[in-house]
Structures are given as structure tokens and as C-alpha cells.
Specification:
globular; 17% strand; 34% helix; 8 helices
Length: 233
């Protein structure tokens, strides 16, 4: 029985499957995926359709899933003269922002799905958690996509707004929790360290950053929390 964390697959179905094979994920194991499964790559929906078949893969919401849901939940409906007027400027702006951040590939893939698979993908995205708290070997971990903006030790996780978790800028020079470890994706390690060659999991001040740049032709990382073994694809 082992617990793993992965993040920011960004539509790379091949690396996702290679990662599952690398860790030899078993039914008694658990894999937490910390968001940004979709966009940029061409296999976003394919990954989601596979993930939903695994009861032991626990998905957390990323900003890219949030953008995708906002657009796709409207576009899945038949576009008529009456529905077209519901696409106000805020919706159009949100769709363009999503496309500019890699959403066009997900949109194109989603369009090719059957009606049943479209509905299944949307329903699955709605199940994504915003955060998770787990304990492995007596060590407590907090799992979120990007971080905890406006952090205060007295704030409960349930008090953080969606934007504060999905678009946070984590301060890796600051200790947030003395007794807990915060694990995040969202920001590639190369951007954290201002080093384009940095492509390994980064640990500092009770933070662990696991986005190793898969969305930008880098590595997909998986961390086993039981052994702290690192896997790279």
C-alpha cells in the first residue's frame, strides 16, 4: 500500500501512462493528482476518461480544469439563436483566456467525444476536490494545486477561496506550517528557481513543489510519500 502525488500532466497521455507503469499503481495504492490534468497537450480528455475508471486516483482541481469547466459546461449545449445570446462578454473573455493558456487543444478533443463521454467528463470534473489533508508515516500533508494565498496559520483550509488555492503564488522561502508539509504543483520548478534546467522535485521550508514542467516539454514527476522515492518520466 503506497500513496503517490502527481501534478500538471497537461494533456500528455503518453507520459501519464508511463508514470502509472513506473509506479506500478495497484488497487491498494492511492494516487493524488494535484490539478492541471488538461490543456496544452492533445490527450486531456483521454487522460480524464482513464482517471475516472480508477477509484484510487484522487483528482484535485487546478486552474486549467476550472477554466475548462467554465467554458465546456456552456458549449456542450446545442448552440441556437437563443443560447448564443447567453455568451456575454465575460464568457467570451474567459474562453479566449483559456484558449491562450492551452485550452484550444482540450476544446478540439472534447468536440470529438460522444455525447455520453462529454457528459461523463463534465461530471467527473465537478468531482475534483479543492484540497486534501492526509497523514503518511505520522507526517501530515496538505495537498493543493497552487498554494494558499493570503496565508494565515489561524485560517482553516475551508476558509480559502477558490482563487486563493488555484492561482496562488507560494512563497518557498517562508515556513507556512511547522508540523505540516504543503505539496503544490502549478508553478514549474524551473520558474521557482529561475533556472531553465531545473527539472526535479523541489523541497524547502516544509514545501514540496512537484510540477517539473511536463506542460512545457519537461518531465512528469511522481513522488511516493511513504518512501519519498521520486519518479521522472
Amino acid at each position: 500500500m503506497a500513496t503517490y502525488v502527481m501534478s500538471d500532466i497537461h494533456g500528455n497521455y503518453e507520459k501519464y501512462m508511463q508514470a502509472l507503469n513506473a509506479i506500478n499503481l495497484q488497487d491498494h495504492d492511492t494516487l493524488y493528482v494535484l490539478g492541471d490534468v488538461v490543456d496544452r497537450g492533445t490527450g486531456s480528455c483521454k487522460i480524464l476518461l482513464d482517471m475516472m475508471c480508477h477509484f484510487n486516483i484522487i483528482p484535485l482541481l487546478g486552474n486549467h480544469e476550472f477554466m475548462a469547466m467554465t467554458v465546456l459546461s456552456k458549449l456542450v449545449e446545442e448552440i441556437t439563436d437563443s443560447t448564443i445570446h447567453s455568451f456575454d462578454q465575460d464568457f467570451i473573455t474567459g474562453m479566449l483566456r483559456w484558449f491562450e493558456n492551452g485550452g484550444k487543444s482540450t476544446f478540439d478533443e472534447f468536440k470529438r467525444l460522444t455525447c455520453d463521454d462529454k457528459q461523463a467528463v463534465l461530471e467527473y470534473l465537478e468531482e475534483f476536490q479543492l484540497y486534501s489533508e492526509i497523514t503518511i508515516n505520522s507526517q501530515e500533508y496538505i495537498l493543493v494545486h497552487a498554494g494558499l494565498d493570503h496565508f494565515k496559520k489561524t485560517r482553516n483550509l475551508s476558509d480559502y477561496k477558490l482563487q486563493e488555492i488555484l492561482w496562488a503564488e507560494t512563497d518557498y522561502d517562508k515556513v507556512y506550517f511547522e508540523d505540516k508539509i504543503l505539496i503544490t504543483g502549478h508553478t514549474p520548478v524551473s520558474a521557482i528557481l529561475f533556472d531553465k534546467s531545473a527539472d526535479k522535485i523541489f523541497k524547502k521550508n516544509n514545501h514540496i513543489a512537484i510540477d517539473c514542467g511536463c506542460g512545457f516539454h519537461g518531465k512528469l514527476a511522481v513522488l511516493c510519500l511513504d518512501t519519498m522515492e521520486e519518479f521522472y518520466i
